[in-house]
Input
Amino acid sequence: MQIILLSGGSGKRLWPLSNDIWSKQFIKLFKDKDGNYESMVHRVYHQILSANPDAKVTIATSHTQVSAIRNQLGDAVSICVEPCRRDTFPAIALAAAYLHDEKGVDKNECVVVCPVDPYVDGSYYEAVNKLEALVHQGTANLTLVGIEPTVPSKKYGYIIPESRESVSPVKEFKEKPDREKAEQYISQGALWNAGVFAFRLGYMLDKAHSMLDFSDYRDLYSQYDTLTKISFDYAVVEKETRIQVLRYAGEWRDVGSWNMMSEVMADKSKGNVTLDETCENVNAVNELDIPILIMGCKDMVVAASTDGILVSDKERSGQMKPYVEAISTDVHFAEKSYGTYTVIDAQPGSLTIKNVLRAGHKMSYHWHEHKDEVWTIVSGRGKTIVDGMEQIVRPGDVVTIAAGCKHMIIAETNLSLIEVQIGKELSLRDKNVCDTGALAKEGL
Amino acid sequence: MQIILLSGGSGKRLWPLSNDIWSKQFIKLFKDKDGNYESMVHRVYHQILSANPDAKVTIATSHTQVSAIRNQLGDAVSICVEPCRRDTFPAIALAAAYLHDEKGVDKNECVVVCPVDPYVDGSYYEAVNKLEALVHQGTANLTLVGIEPTVPSKKYGYIIPESRESVSPVKEFKEKPDREKAEQYISQGALWNAGVFAFRLGYMLDKAHSMLDFSDYRDLYSQYDTLTKISFDYAVVEKETRIQVLRYAGEWRDVGSWNMMSEVMADKSKGNVTLDETCENVNAVNELDIPILIMGCKDMVVAASTDGILVSDKERSGQMKPYVEAISTDVHFAEKSYGTYTVIDAQPGSLTIKNVLRAGHKMSYHWHEHKDEVWTIVSGRGKTIVDGMEQIVRPGDVVTIAAGCKHMIIAETNLSLIEVQIGKELSLRDKNVCDTGALAKEGL
Output
């Protein structure tokens, strides 16, 4: 069985811990069985493999998430990179082509598409496993998972099944309703649409080829930015007549707001946080080095990162989007292929950054057009290359890199360096990665 | 008239904006008549001079506050530096000796001792001005200001006067009472003890010489660390029989907690703060560069600095002391003679600091035993001296300073530099200031 995990867009709903390039699925607020903090993507990946060790997981995502996924899940997981964001139908079409054309997956194999963000228990992926047999029975082209509603929620789409059987043909779909309608749907046995779809790979390839003009995966990839944004629900699901749904009644929570995240996060607080004994129902996450003291608060969430600080009533936190959008969106933290990048000071004309590299990892060989850099190694051992010159570096060593100089660092041990950027324009976009042959040309 | 302003101890009651070396009287949350933010010490100093342009002000304080006072009030104000903290009797004795022995003030002159921290309006210092005439009348050795109580507070000492006249002999003093006793005192016409004492300079010198064994100011200064800690109230006021009190009924507030500060601060929020429209009675101060978003909160104070973040119910904020004491007390911000010093990153073995120098100011010529430093100039122009070698510096220039090297920087314009310290022990105490002749010896 093939699983396509949709690792979706940039989210601001868990600001300041999520931002344009650091989506909520990477925030480590859960715990694995050994008590170590883990993220949603880590949790889901291991839940899938624990329910079915033979499942083959491919993560469909944008290139901005690749480093975070590799850092959290390692090199074994398969990643299908979307060149840009084009909603779920093009994403699933691309992933299907990737599985067939790049991975050689047979058209008869069962593929299950799952979103990466619900908080569920193990029984959910046991339900997902049942989809394979249902797909191979051939009674439907598409098999969905429907969640037994716990409240008449206005936040989800509803699936109306023909019957209340465990597996039932779908009668119709309903958009996010008001409360009254939701109650009415539920009285008819309606289920929440969890965004889980199972099908034969061949079914999806046929759909893709019938709706998009492409020859194979590489062709689709190369024209991806010209595709129209359209959801899988709209393009495929709502038009399909041979469609059925599997009921699921176990734990399933959407952690799309701090209010919901606070219900499932492993610890009431994480990081350097002091809650006085008069606090009630307060959750706090502190990714900064400085302490947070919270006193006499009730029903609140406090979250701090290098991007900003949120102090909010839990209920109210769901309304945060327009406020966050109005706040400056400078990204102060990013997961890189080599480790992490944190802006620790920003002034007109300069930016100071803490770079932490993991042992054995390296930056790409690159250069900037408009900025000079000064690196001071503060811990660890490594090697820098600047315009072809190699230098062993240790704490206290300084490397100055003028605009136009090609440069990189290779961490021998875990290594930390303070980088000061100087220039009139300090854009993240001013980065030119050298061709793969550049080092060889320099005899390295 | 001489005024001794007691600029008291390190305060944690307005943490994280006040710390061991940055007392609450330096936090700029008030506004002057031109709408510029000003601190309590700035406000009080100008209120005194506005009520009496001929008043001579001497600030009695510890050496840790001298830079902040000079930066905020300029070089004209007189400062009597206590070598260490020994409570108010030794501090006032030292200031009295300073006025007489160093400044040549006549023993018959009126001296008024005022704490620096009450928030008052102009009429308060008009009352203070009246003390001079009362002192010269000679009907008492000590004249106090008593504040008409507005509530039966448990936080202040009470003065019981003989009569309800505007000026009355003092009958007795009462320690901080419980609420019931406070009500009883107030029904007898009692006043809050504001810590304001007026006397002839000669009176105080006699008291000092009778209780402490010293010849003159310099002698007292040199043995200051051997003096017993004792308050002026206990050592002098409560033993004096010829003592009177002047009633004051205008505005007088102790801003010793965030709850009280929030009542008098000029703006509801300061710094990069967004309050959503559902917030009620929330005050926020953000000294960090990152944004704070506050949603759905009520009756709260939020304060953030490089030392930490406070999120507290206003009432509850008065109970913060034990919690703050339990939190790590690393100081991340300091006002220096040259400008400001802010720790922006701390790791084992390294410390990264943003130094901001004002035009025309300089660091002292100094060296460190155990740490190397790397300076990167990020804005402005100046000159560094390292082991006698001068160098003109501009943005992008790097200066490396090995342990043991003498070094300094002189800012020609406003100048900002990022300093990376490397070493196994990174103590603020590892700083050795060179003799005044050191530069001359190097021919500079």
Notes: Chain B touches chain A through 60 residues (CB under 8 Å). Residues 382 and 412 of chain B are 5 Å apart (CA to CA). The two ends of chain B are 44 Å apart (CA to CA).
